[in-house]
Amino acid sequence: MIHDRKRVERIREAVLNGLNRVSDLGAAVHDPALPEHIAVIEHLFEHVESFCFRLLEKEQQGTFEQESRWLDNAERMVHIATKQTESLERIFWSF
Q: Which helix (H) or strand (E) holds 92?
């Protein structure tokens, strides 16, 4: 059960934006080494939805505090994936 739906929606929006940025970068990249890095970032973003949110939705006994810890971790994962995306964008767009 999800208690803080607005927070979840904000995280989902950040995941969608991140996936769109990674997709745009992947479409522009022709270097054979970068697609592996892009795939890792995509998996991080997708992991938030496929693992964190699905488990929260299935959890019936979770408290608000437990959910808050899960969402903190989801936000950290989005932050890490976003930073990695920015790093790849800087590398790619600098050439």
A: helix 64-93
Q: pTM of the entire structure? A: 0.85
Residue 24 host element (H or E): helix 5-28
State the residue range of the domain holding 68.
Answer: 5-93
The tally of domains found in the chain comes to 1
Contact 72, 48 (CB under 8 A): no
Q: Could you list the pLDDT tens digit for every one of the 95 residues in the chain?
A: 677 889 989 999 999 999 999 999 888 877 787 888 889 999 999 999 888 888 777 776 778 888 888 899 999 999 999 999 999 889 877 76
> Do 91 and 28 touch, CB atoms closer than 8 A?
no
